[in-house]
Specification:
CATH topology of the largest domain: Rossmann fold
Helix content: 25-40%
CATH superfamily of the largest domain: Thiamin diphosphate (ThDP)-binding fold, Pyr/PP domains
Bound molecules: 2-acetyl-thiamine diphosphate, magnesium ion
Number of strands: 17
Radius of gyration: 27 Å
CATH architecture of the largest domain: 3-Layer(aba) Sandwich
Number of helices: 23
Largest sheet: 7 strands, mixed
Number of domains: 3
Distance between the termini: 42 Å
Shape: globular
Oligomer: single chain
Structural class: alpha/beta
Strand content: 5-15%
């Protein structure tokens, strides 16, 4: 909508006069270089306002704004390809590529994705959400360009956290060998979601001992000029023959891999970044430009606590005030339980792939620092390290999000399951996660884990059952995956360790006519739907593997129909398991399988996706009515 014209003296001054003129990378190029710092400041202001509704990736996007402005100033997107690893830091890119007016819709149903997405914009080079994919994608694009005899530029932006992923490191190995023209901007803010970890991280801290580039505009600029300019000038003349000349450390792992290394430079000096990118992007072979940024840049409270401000809730942009929540999450329930468990059992050891906060492990990491390991964004390493521990007598627990365990499928199968090792998988964010959308939904784990022999799978209905399962997992001689959803549960007192006989279900509502089988979140919905309906039974199918065949035979022998409910794809999930078991038992009881349909679910609220998928309470009641149950209209 265009603003009504009023006399200019009455119009409030825009907070973003430069940004108001920029709606595309072409508009950006019309600005002079000395306007770029102001534009970046306005972009940050805009990002803070957009993010104040909560649930968005604020601090990462603030830190990457200057380098995004510089990249779009030099490169010609969409012809030139700019790739963002993870995509959570790319809000400035979205705003600069014609999506400013839609920013309030980010992560909302029907709105923009929280990451970059090929189907969303021609400027989004890759569809992402998971880390460490940008380098291999960029290599593929450079190889495609050369194979097709084309001549565009390829630049990938990757964070220091994402560089810890095996995929990124393995891609560098090939990139250095293939020697194609491409630029890698290493956005180093010393942070993943929590403090970054790993040997490479320590190496990069060594490179940063010259702290000058963060200390004051003038000093930084001078130092960059003193160091980077002559080097880059020289390099652009000498091109690839000078590759190893610029290493500030005697052994530079990037250079050792055959990738030209430049840096570290101040990632907030946008004019210097423009100057450098102009010179580096056309050099033969691959180049890493190592830029140092501050997570939360420009927003004092976010700079002071970048862990909280990685993905804050709703806040007041002026003061940074936010309402803290008293809700008790499943992640906290796991964290509390495992902190207690480790006090009782010296064999307990918890491994996280870069998700200390999200997995509820802050307290655990403080209480049991010697039995805690963050391997960085390397899910495969997390699982196989656990295998090594289990082989030597520990009882490791891999705390991992469902969606990220997808990265370690073969490690579960090959390194853990074949020898039936006692590794527990505490799988958080199982099921639809909502706002993060298709890349982050955890709706495949029941299917992919169920197909691996020896792996037990449990869906606790509450925090007490989660504890019962953790205890059972320590005692059971083999891998066990305990899967719980995003969201909240009830607190239980310390010392709650119920016995949970392996592979058993539990009747939670009597009724033999139609029986609903469901675990976890599906059970919540089933109980709501079936409450007060005579003849409708509900079973807490808390073990998806092994199924409780005794109880299944019992209920299926009597019931007219069974209904299964799961927050997982219907392909190969819990309902499939029930059908397979009935087939094996020679029972022909009709089964209605309710679950997430065989399609990727975009970002929306969890409730909305569940309603559309037909697994929430009203949807279950509709199915019961179709099966001839007398269902009153209102729930
Ligand atoms: N594991 C994998 C394979 N992918 C993702 N995205 C995660 C875990 C979770 N995750 C993020 S953002 C992020 C993690 C671990 C930190 C990335 O650190 P980096 O960027 O240094 O690359 P920074 O935040 O700007 O410092 C999301 O799910 C969004
Ligand atoms: Mg980082």
């Amino acid at each position: 909508m265009s603003e009504p014209k009023t006399s200019s003296s009455l119009q409030p001054a825009s907070r973003t006069p430069l940004l108001d003129r920029v709606n595309s990378p072409e508009d950006l190029k019309r600005l002079s270089r000395d306007q770029l710092p102001q534009l970046a400041a306005e972009l940050r202001d805009e990002i803070v306002r957009v993010c104040s509704v909560g649930g968005l990736h604020l601090a990462s996007s603030l830190g990457a704004t200057d380098l995004i402005v510089a990249l779009h100033y030099v490169l010609n997107s969409p012809r030139d390809r700019i790739l963002f690893d993870v995509g959570h830091q790319a809000y400035a890119h979205k705003i600069l590529t014609g999506r400013r007016d839609r920013m309030p819709t980010v992560k909302k149903e029907g709105g923009l994705s929280g990451f970059t997405k090929v189907s969303e914009s021609e400027h989004d080079a890759i569809t992402v959400g998971h880390a460490s994919t940008s380098l291999a994608n960029a290599l593929g694009m450079a190889l495609a360009r050369d194979a097709l005899g084309q001549n565009y530029k390829v630049a990938a932006v990757i964070g220091d956290g994402s560089l810890t992923g095996g995929m990124a490191l393995a891609a560098l190995n090939t990139i250095g060998d293939m020697n194609r023209r491409m630029l890698i901007v290493l956005n180093d803010n010393e942070m993943s979601i929590s403090e970054n970890v790993g040997a490479l991280n320590k190496f990069m801290r060594g490179l940063q001992v010259q702290k000058w580039f963060q200390e004051g505009e003038g000093a930084g600029k001078k130092a960059v000029q003193a160091v980077s300019k002559p080097l880059a000038e020289f390099m652009s003349r000498a091109k690839s023959s000078t590759r190893h000349f610029f290493d500030p450390a005697s052994v530079n792992p990037f250079a050792a891999m055959g990738v030209r290394y430049v840096g570290p430079v101040d990632g907030h000096n946008v004019q210097e970044l423009v100057w450098l990118i102009e010179r580096l992007v056309d050099l033969d072979g691959p180049t890493i430009l190592h830029v140092v940024t501050r997570k939360g840049k420009g927003l004092s409270y976010a700079e002071a606590d970048p862990i909280y401000w990685h993905g804050p809730g709703k806040f007041d942009p002026a003061t940074g005030e936010f309402a803290s929540s008293s809700a008790y999450s499943w992640s906290s329930a796991f964290g509390d339980a495992v902190t207690e468990l480790a006090r009782q059992d010296p064999r307990t050891f918890v491994i996280t792939p870069a998700m200390r906060e999200g997995s509820g492990l802050v307290k655990y990491s403080q209480v049991h620092p010697n039995r805690y390991l963050d391997v960085g964004i390397a899910e495969d390493v997390a699982v196989t390290t656990a295998a090594g521990m289990a082989l030597q007598g520990l009882r490791p627990i891999v705390a991992i999000y469902s969606t990220f365990l997808q990265r370690a499928y073969d490690q579960v199968l090959h390194d853990v399951a074949i020898e039936n090792l006692n590794v527990t998988f505490a799988i958080d964010r199982g099921g639809i996660v909502g706002a993060d959308g298709a890349t982050h939904n955890g709706v495949f784990d029941l299917s992919y884990l169920r197909s691996i022999p020896n792996v037990g799978i449990g869906l606790p209905k509450d925090a007490a059952e989660l504890r019962g399962m953790l205890k059972a997992a320590q005692e059971h001689p083999g891998p066990f995956a305990i899967r719980y959803p995003r969201g909240n549960t009830e607190r239980v007192p310390e010392g709650t360790w119920p016995d949970l006989p392996w592979g058993t279900w539990e009747r939670v509502q009597d009724g033999d006519d139609v029986v609903i089988l469901a675990g976890g979140k599906g059970l919540d919905y089933a109980l709501k739907a079936a409450r007060g309906l005579p003849g409708v039974g509900v079973v807490n199918a808390r073990f998806v593997k092994p199924l409780d065949e005794k109880m299944l035979r019992e209920v299926a022998g009597k019931a007219r129909a069974l209904v299964t409910v799961e927050d997982n794809t219907v392909v190969g999930g819990f309902g499939s398991a029930v059908l397979e078991a009935l087939s094996g038992l020679g029972l022909r009881t009709p089964v209605r399988v309710l679950g997430i349909p065989d399609a990727f679910q975009d970002h929306a609220t969890v409730e909305s996706v569940h309603a559309r998928a037909g697994i929430d309470a009203p949807a279950i009641r509709t199915v019961l009515a179709e099966l001839g149950v007398d269902v009153p209209l209102e729930v």
